[in-house]
């Protein structure tokens, strides 16, 4: 039986990836790296079907013990401090988790490869944030585009990306990197735009919030992708793509954040919602143009998005409506 380890399995992407693998590849054993205190809400539906391995990315011995015991064939490295805004407040913590944590994971794999011949496929989830503020003539953004990281989070993802490449060059650790563009769906953290807007709308509908919706920069342009299409892409990645390479993954529906918000507002029965810019939601430096070229990934895998973004937004809003029903 094939073994897969997902770091960050309790998070948004990690939990959806576990769901997908269990459904589509039932003969695969799913392991999840988790810290003991992390909430299990996102994986409560699969707790009896997975094996949780308690450890921490910033603690190298814990990773060595887990890998030596289980020797997963595939590692999806999804764990990260992924909130851009928080990275401005806590840059050192962001770098520690994302850069040192990734280095520890790769070192643990290298040690086990040298001592026991262990040779897994390792997916390192980098980010479109690496590209930063691109120029108008650089869209759609290709993998060869220069890096201009505009936040400590983006810097950490550049480092992760380059560490993965270096471990392939130096030690032939079979890393495959992705730079995922905006992806969303149910379970998305409430601090992220689509989820934040949907949660506020659901709270207003439930009479728990005044009809005022707080927002940040609505002019940024994003290409949106459903989380289910994203994790399907990740599974294709480790089965069809080449170690040492990097691939952009993203959707096909492009719009401003404001246009996305209007779609959500149109799904609400409440029609008098005021939209108000909250200065606290504006970043010191922002990335306002993210449109990917996914040609390289599509040519290798044949993948393309299947879920329309209107359905994604409906799913997110339904998720938060259900949340308030359960917590009324």
**Domain unit count:** 2
Full CATH superfamily name of the largest domain: NAD(P)-binding Rossmann-like Domain
Tally of DSSP helical segments = 10
What is the class of the largest domain in the CATH system? Alpha Beta
Q: Give the strand line-up of the largest sheet.
A: 3-2-1-4-5-6-10
Q: What value does the average pLDDT take?
A: 97
CATH topology of the largest domain: the name is: Rossmann fold
Per CATH, which architecture of the largest domain?
Answer: 3-Layer(aba) Sandwich
Q: Uncertain spans, ≥5 residues at pLDDT below 50? A: none
Q: Specify the biggest β-sheet.
A: 7 strands, parallel
What does the overall shape look like? globular
Distance between the termini: 44 Å
Gyration radius over CA: 20 Å
Name a few traits of the molecule.
lyase, 328 residues, 10 helices, 7-stranded parallel β-sheet, UDP-galactose 4-epimerase, domain 1, Rossmann fold, GDP-mannose 4,6-dehydratase activity, GDP-mannose 4,6-dehydratase, 2 domains, alpha/beta
Protein model, in words:
The chain has 328 residues and is α/β, with parallel strands linked by helices. The chain has two domains: 2-184 and 226-249, NAD(P)-binding Rossmann-like Domain (Rossmann fold, 3-Layer(aba) Sandwich); 193-222 and 253-291 and 306-326, UDP-galactose 4-epimerase, domain 1. Helices cover 42% and strands 19% of the residues. It has helices spanning 12-24, 60-70, 84-89, 91-116, 152-171, 193-205, 227-240, 257-266, 295-301, 309-326; strands at residues 2-7, 28-34, 51-54, 74-77, 121-127, 174-180, 183-184, 212-215, 221-226, 246-249, 253-256, 274-277, 289-290. The strands form three sheets. It has a seven-stranded parallel beta sheet, sandwiched between helices. β5, α5 and β6 (174-180) form a beta-alpha-beta unit. The longest helix has 26 residues, at 91-116. The protein starts with a strand and ends with a helix. The mean pLDDT is 97.
């Amino acid at each position: 039986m094939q073994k897969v380890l997902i770091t960050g399995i309790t998070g948004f992407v990690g939990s959806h990836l576990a769901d997908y693998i269990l459904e589509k590849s039932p003969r695969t054993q799913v392991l999840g790296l988790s810290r003991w205190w992390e909430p299990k809400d996102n994986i409560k539906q699969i707790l009896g079907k997975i094996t949780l391995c308690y450890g921490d990315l910033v603690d190298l011995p814990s990773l060595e013990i887990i890998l030596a015991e289980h020797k997963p064939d595939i590692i999806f490295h999804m764990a990260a401090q992924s909130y851009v805004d928080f990275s401005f407040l806590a840059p050192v913590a962001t770098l520690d988790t994302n850069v040192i944590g990734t280095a520890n994971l790769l070192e643990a794999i290298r040690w086990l490869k040298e001592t026991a011949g262990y040779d897994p496929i390792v997916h390192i989830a980098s980010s479109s944030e690496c590209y930063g503020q691109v120029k108008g003539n650089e869209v759609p953004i290709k993998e060869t585009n220069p890096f201009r990281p505009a936040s400590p989070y983006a810097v950490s993802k550049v480092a992760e990306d380059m560490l993965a490449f270096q471990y392939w060059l130096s030690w032939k650790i079979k890393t495959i990197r992705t730079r995922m563009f905006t992806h969303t769906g149910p379970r998305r953290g409430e601090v992220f735009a689509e989820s934040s807007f949907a949660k506020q709308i659901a709270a207003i509908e439930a009479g728990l919030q005044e009809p005022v919706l707080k927002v940040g920069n609505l002019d940024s342009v994003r290409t949106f992708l459903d989380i289910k299409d994203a994790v399907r892409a990740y599974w294709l990645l480790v089965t069809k793509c080449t170690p040492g390479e990097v691939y952009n993954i993203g959707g096909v529906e492009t719009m401003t954040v404001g246009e996305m918000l209007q779609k959500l507002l149109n799904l609400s029965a409440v029609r008098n919602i005021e939209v108000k810019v909250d200065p606290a939601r504006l970043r010191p430096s922002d990335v306002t143009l993210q449109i990917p070229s996914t040609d390289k990934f599509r040519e290798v895998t044949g993948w393309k998005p299947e879920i329309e973004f209107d359905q994604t937004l409906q799913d997110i809003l339904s998720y938060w409506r259900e949340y308030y029903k359960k917590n009324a």
